[in-house]
Amino acid sequence: MSPKGSLDKDLEKIVHVEAAARSVTRGNVSHGIAILFLGLSGLLAITVTGASTEAAIIVFAAILGGYMALNIGANDVANNVGPAVGARAMTMIGALVIAAVFESAGALLAGGDVVDTISKGIINPDLVPDPNVFVWGMLAALLSSAVWIHLATFIGAPVSTTHAVVGGVLGIGIAAVGFDLVNWHVFGAIAASWVISPVLGGVIAALFLAFIKLNIIYREDKIAAARRWIPILVAVMAGAFAWYLSVKGFKRFWKPDLTTLLIIAIGSFTVVYAIMKPLVRRQSEGLENRNQSLRKLFHIPLICSAALLSFAHGANDVANAIGPVAAILHGVQDGALSAKVTVPIWVMIIGAFGISLGLFLYGPKLIRMVGSKITKMNPMRAYCVALSAALTVIVASWLGLPVSSTHIAVGAVFGVGFFRESFTRRSKRRQELMQRQRQSRLGEDSPPVDMKPAHSPEEILKRKLVRRSHFLTIVAAWVVTVPASAALSATVYWILSLVR
């Protein structure tokens, strides 16, 4: 081998070592910042509540609440911005900033000062014989659910933080009192959402993608079709988000009736349509009649949808971190049990800041998973995922069905990918359009193109546009989230009962 070849190989090894060293260093810095945040959470707790005989429990609860918030940010927020990042409508840094700002705003402005700490009524605190049992049980539930979400993030599986908390509460309820403590009717409704959420989200996303393909992408004049339909689609999204935020985002201080919701949704649709119609026309002027041009027209709607989804998520899921902490604080200080408690502002700050910090430190891994590793995204597909998330929550709320926002968003990603697989196999129109486009590029006077399919039927059947390994990993994590969290919670509670 020549000296030059040896030198190149040595330099390449050095580059790999340097890259590995940078990766390890970044990981250590992230862990250090996370540990510092947990320490400050405990310090804030002792500063606000003061020294007392229960101070150690309060500090421990605050640290666990901060740990849970970090894990929510690392895992759950990816569903809101991942598709937009995968579609390259947003950079990773831009997505992190937008998500952090709107998650914090949602948590602090609309997070709710009264939180259902017993996870949607899954256990009845009146049946708990001793407040101390309740306090230690909540500590076990919070720790076990946070550890499970941490593990799911490590393996790259977006899971429902609400289901993790449900499992944790279920486990300590059974371990502390027995099966009679559990409201099995409520638990059954929550379990139904494991199937309802992803299926409903996937179907709605696939239907919108089919509509976009047939009415915009595969039209002869794509720009004219885009000018007609994109304002309507964006207006539909605006109406859906107006309804979504009215029902979910501002429930702390406003509960509108159905008539009011319809007025808000229709009004938002009308206003946004009036704005978008001339805006899309101006944006489309001079654009070529190709798919790449269409993608540019979806960028702004995607950014807006990511921000609105993050706001609604912060308003709703911050309760998974701070609810148990508020319950522990209430039980320790008042010595009473209650299904609903008031959340102090300092606890809300820990939850809101922890979610944003977890997103910055550990969120990119799951953002890449949701945005690009399950199936390839473009702005049209990502738009369908975002719109599906809002519409599915509306439909489920109207039907009285419990759903998971995580399962909806990831189910929508699956739905888009599986629809693409099916469409690729069956679409003769697509092959005909490709033939016309190729003939157009060659010129009308050229001999007719003998267009052969881009792929043989056997090759098309083998094409998997959804990565099966990720699909199976995520579905398996969904199935075991509640039982795993319950088993962890019961084990932790048993250990704590021995040492306390």
UniProtKB/TrEMBL annotation:
GO terms for cellular component: membrane. It comes from the Bacteria. Keywords: Membrane, Phosphate transport, Transmembrane, Transmembrane helix, Transport. The keyword Transmembrane helix applies. Belongs to the inorganic phosphate transporter (PiT) (TC 2.A.20) family. This is Phosphate transporter. It is found in: Membrane. Its main location: membrane. GO terms for molecular function: phosphate transmembrane transporter activity. The chain crosses the membrane at residues 32-51, 57-77, 89-110, 133-157, 164-186, 192-217, 229-246, 258-276, 297-315, 343-362, 382-401, 407-423, 471-496. Residues 434-454 are annotated as: Disordered. InterPro entries: Phos_transporter (IPR001204).
